[in-house]
Amino acid sequence: MSQKTTTKTTYHIPVGPIHPALKEPVFFEFEIDGEKIVDVDVKLGHVHRGVEWASRKRNPIQILYLAERICGICSYCHPAAFTLGIEDAADIEVPERAEYLRVIQGELERIASHMLWAGVAAHEIGFDTVLFLTWEMREKIMDLTEFLCGNRVTKGIMTIGGIRRDITKDMIPQITKSLDYLKDNFEKIRHIFLDDKTVKLRSQGAGILTKDDALRLCAVGPTTRASAIKKDVRVDTSYFAYGDLDIDYITPDILTGEVNGDVYDRIIQRLLEIKQSIDLIEQCLDIMPNGDIVSEPNIPKLLNQLKKVEGEGVGRHEAPRGEVFHYVKLTGEDTPFTWKVRAPTYNNILPWIPMLKGEQIADIPIVAASTDPCMSCTNRVGIIKDGNRYELNKEELHRLSVEKTRRLMR
Amino acid sequence: MGNNKTVEELVKYFKDEFKTKIKSIDIKTRAAGSKKKETSTIWMKIDKTVFKDVIKHLVDYQYPHLPVVSGNDLGKNIELIYHFTVNYGERLKEINFHISVELPKSKPEIESICDLIPGALITEREKQEFLGVKIKGIPDDRKLFLPDDWPDKVYPWRRDETGPEKYYKNLHEVNKK
After folding, report:
1. CATH of B7-162, one of 3.30.1640.10, 3.90.850.10, 3.30.460.80, 3.40.50.20
2. Predicted pLDDT at A145
3. Taking Cα atoms as reference points, which of A345, A356, A216, A203 lies closest to residue A265?
4. Contact A236/B123, CB-based, under 8 Å?
5. Which domains does chain A have, with CATH numbers?
6. How far is B171 from chain A, CA to nearest CA, in Å?
7. pTM of the model
8. Omega of the bond prior to A17 within 30 degrees of 0, cis?
């Protein structure tokens, strides 16, 4: 713990390693002047599991399933990026139909993840009814995921050179039914988040990330787009079937005409992206060509091919939280020589610092949650004031946040 | 972003400036989907003496996005690969630009690029602790992921005697009599 705590004007408050927003460990140390945050330090590594190192004893197909377990929410995008990396290194052609099926899976995951986030954000500012409303809608997407993959969370759908399950004609009505349900209920969610006075009071002008900071700190995903930077791997590059689809950058000014880079903009951003994802899935269902779904169904044969490959590859996929980046180096052995995983939150850590500076303690949960961090969880917060330690638990911090909302509602 | 360079122009821009200091350049293009739209990737290996200058030139051309820096232990040398992307913000115009530099294990030192790209801090800190390279001029050289009581001179991504081998146990051997 820092000893600067003895200064009279400011004191330090450590938050974490159990995180106040999402159920994952990250440690913040805030320097506080009264209620105002003066400085922020972030410490990581509480759930570093050495996944990259573990890959040294696994072949590429086994790594797919390891990659899937990096994150519980992004259980599609890590194997997707890894597969893209391997396909890049080994020059594997993927059947066209598989490329479209991959887009559908990716967008389904985005809807589920953004819905989950919307619920968490509502919970952080004390609207638990909205939490249940959004998660009820998310449940339909989880059901659809189960229908398409056989599993709700670890989908096991990705494979090198294609995808493992096809979408047949008789499955399409079920998909359209779920998407229609989402579209019908979207207005409800939009109204709650974007028109409610209290949500606006809590989120507008809070946690501002300027365009310049977002660029310089290499932010990714909805966090950077909500600060008006047009950066989206799906639009910028051609991978999967995204090159064929009608897709454009989404920034919050599409709806409001201006970009502030605050929490409110990040809410708008994600809601617009849910709409975009529904549209992309529908486009895919419309124009998906027929054909194979995997280039080499025989896995031992595929592994034998990969064993002979020497080269490097990079896979980039736009995950719900932003660009996920995997680097793979193959050296003609059973296992890849190097596998580097870079999840989107890795790049969205530094942007937290300008976002949180100048905010109040009660704003920590919603501002921290607004980047949708994916590290893993929440429990304990201690306040150090003039060398005395006060324990402030997650519930306490949450209570502060809820109280602020209540104050604003009066 | 009206004056985006194409892959060829970008390669020429660096070749003209750094000539023999560029060890190799590979251009790779991959197509995807039914319409076979393409995205290009440049892999450039450079000498470490011009490293900072190359990054400066890249920033002068356009502020790049730096997803991450990855690294390999190649035996005698440590390779660092700075993965950049440029020309983003326009439909299908983005170019992946990977700049690789090799550092001898006897003196694994490289300049920090945080003054040019502040967002590089997290990944530079990670490279220091995981590969045992020294980033000169890094604004914050604390550990990032590894715990504070992690032993000195043990680097998880090394494949030599400084690797983590002696610290791990095989689960099937634990508690065996």
Report:
1. 3.30.460.80
2. 94
3. A203
4. no
5. 11-47+354-409 (3.30.390), 51-346 (1.10.645.10)
6. 13
7. 0.90
8. yes
